[in-house]
Design goal:
Distance between the termini: 61 Å
Oligomer: single chain
CATH superfamily of the largest domain: q2cbj1_9rhob like domain
CATH topology of the largest domain: Jelly Rolls
Number of domains: 2
Number of strands: 9
Length: 270
């Protein structure tokens, strides 16, 4: 691995996160902003203090803003995630977060908790999250706040305000972090908006946070790369067959020429 990749992986192992500056082009940021604009008209603000009552979140992004694919499968972040998660990892969530002035801090949380199951920290890594900055992340406009090293904490250790640090980075940058790292969106005490997009990835055997094969149905998924299709869930875990649809590979839903195991239709009633 290149030294830069190795050093970033070491930062994630030690601190829980790494910041990669200036990896997204201005042209791509402009294109994505234009695709998001119809969905960010101030009509659908958050429903609670986690979503943010002064924040607009757009879900199912690959069904609404196709250029998002270019950051979801960006080679700079995938070079890390390919080392951090098992083969065939999935896209667990992908949403934009537009934080308006007056927003308060989110509750502290981590992204890869397994609801309803007795699986506690510290434990093996379940997921990796990324947050891409479309505006400068500053000390006053709602920059993400992280607690370094908290991905290795015991489940019952509570975060303290004084332990959090702000992720300050210029627009076009990305922070990559362990799914168990405690973090939150910060307060926006400025007079400007702060836009970010957060693709989150998970172990292939886990349920995705967003139901991707319904959010991005076959008619849309078929236009994306095979890598994106696999991350959405149009794949199986090999050498097993977890993820099949009616006994066949889900690729049959988006690729009529797929030559895997043939489908055997049900026999008509006698």
């Amino acid at each position: 691995m290149p030294n830069s990749t190795a050093s970033r992986l070491a930062e994630i192992e030690n601190d829980g996160y790494t910041i990669i500056e200036n990896v997204m082009s201005a042209e791509l940021m402009t294109r994505i902003r234009a695709e998001l604009e119809p969905y960010c008209q101030g009509e659908y603000l958050g429903r609670n203090n986690f979503e943010g009552t002064h924040t607009e979140r757009v879900y199912a992004l690959l069904a609404k803003a196709p250029s998002i694919a270019e950051i979801i499968e960006h080679p700079t972040t995938l070079a890390l995630i390919d080392q951090l998660l098992p083969k065939n990892f999935l896209l667990s969530a992908a949403l934009s977060i537009l934080v308006h002035p007056g927003e308060t801090p989110q509750p502290f949380h981590y992204d890869d908790g397994i609801a309803g199951l007795p699986v506690y920290k510290p434990r093996p890594r379940f997921g990796v999250s990324t947050i891409w900055a479309f505006d400068d992340f500053t000390a006053t406009n709602g920059a993400t706040e992280v607690i370094p090293g908290s991905h290795r904490w015991a489940e019952d250790r509570e975060p303290r305000e004084a332990e959090a640090i702000k992720v300050l980075m210029p627009a076009g940058s990305v922070v990559v972090f362990d799914g168990a790292l405690i973090h939150r969106g910060g307060a926006n005490t400025s007079n400007t908006d702060r836009l970010a997009i957060t693709p989150q990835y998970c172990n292939p055997g886990l349920r995705q946070i967003e139901n991707m094969v319904l959010s991005v149905p076959p008619s849309i998924a078929g236009h994306y790369s095979e890598r994106i299709q696999n991350m959405l869930g149009y794949n199986i875990i090999e050498p097993s067959f977890m993820g099949y649809v009616d006994g066949v590979h889900p690729r049959r839903l988006i690729d009529s020429s797929y030559q895997g195991r043939k489908y055997r239709p049900e026999l008509p009633p006698s």
